[in-house]
Automatic annotation (TrEMBL):
Keywords: Hydrolase, Lipid degradation, Lipid metabolism, Signal. InterPro entries: GDSL, GDSL_Est/Lipase, SGNH_hydro_sf, SGNH_plant_lipase-like. The keyword DNA repair does not apply. GO terms for biological process: lipid catabolic process. It comes from Triticum aestivum. CDD domains: SGNH_plant_lipase_like. PANTHER family: GDSL LIPASE/ACYLHYDROLASE FAMILY PROTEIN (AFU_ORTHOLOGUE AFUA_4G14700) (PTHR45648), GDSL-LIKE LIPASE_ACYLHYDROLASE FAMILY PROTEIN, EXPRESSED (PTHR45648:SF160). This is GDSL esterase/lipase.
Amino acid sequence: MAGGASALAIMALGVLLLAAPSECARAFFVFGDSLVDNGNNNYLMTTARADSPPYGIDYPTHQATGRFSNGLNIPDIISEQIGAEPTLPYLSPELHGAKLLVGANFASAGVGILNDTGIQFVRTVNIVRVSRQLHYFGEYQGKLRALVGASQATQIVNRALVLITLGGNDFVNNYYLIPFSLRSRQFSLPDYVRYLIFEYKKILMRLYDMGARRVLVTGTGPLGCAPAELALRSRDGECDRDLMRAAELFNPQLSQALEELNARYGDGTFIAANSFRVHFDFISDPAAYGFRTAKEACCGQGPHNGVGLCTAVSRLCANRDQYVFWDSYHPTERANRIIVSQFMTGSLDYVSPLNLSTALHIDASLMD
Ligand SMILES: *[C@@H]1O[C@H](CO)[C@@H](O)[C@H](O)[C@H]1NC(C)=O
Ligand SMILES: *[C@@H]1O[C@H](CO)[C@@H](O)[C@H](O)[C@H]1NC(C)=O
């Protein structure tokens, strides 16, 4: 009897869990590189990992999770904003049953738009390139259909919020990785950027074909100003000009491509998020945002604390909140919070054709 009652209670709980998402939080899917990876690379043999301290020092569990931050990353904070728990990495064994309704994070540190970006991180098993991330998205949808049926699965995917962050690695870990790289001998920078945008557009169209209808696409930051590049390429502490030129060519062409896609699929299907502008604000006037510096990483070694990886033996800053950069490339949680708040409520200079809070508002009003 007692056994029967608790089985009933468990079933009721199961029904509640299944019923919840259509009533409150929408699903959230994440694609891209280390800026948005929630830990997929922990499950791979690669050197591009953030799975040991002091990564995660300010995470709720105070443990390294594979996120490239001291605490929460951009997708985590977006999850907070939509009232959802953080997305699990797609490769996590915990991602099954009702957890599928939260969405999934397919991102993998080191990847780019191109398949040959990030090859230096590969050991025996690959990083999850974006074509594979999309393949996993298809696989995920099969699991979702098995859980809730075909029509509800389609609805969950159509109503989901999607985030994709790509492009930075195609410069720092490909074209500019070494002098006279293969790609830099093959393409002038403007031609390379055109090629990247052409390939990125195909990826975004594929996402649309797979059911994505509200996709936040972040451009690259001012790549030449990351502590890693200041340490590696800058003599006078000024942002590296080649990488700045790369970002300045890439970002406007990405926005243009998103406008073209929106003309075809409907306005606001793709939302351009101007990471360059937000980061540039930090660099121009760090104090205005409560930062002590935007040119030194909190965790690292060497000039700008920007050489090599952040590890247990690195120089670690005392107050993470005073730094824009946690390690040589990736923002602190506090910087991530400001970045997301600009995506949520910023003007058209930061996010276009509409900000995320407006988009979420419109979408909520369309849901029954
Ligand atoms: C990358 O590889 C995938 C799978 O092999 C392929 O479908 C895709 O076209 C490739 N992308 C580029 C830009 O070559
Ligand atoms: C952005 O969001 C805020 C808050 O929801 C809103 O008041 C503002 O008008 C929006 N700006 C644009 C340009 O959409």
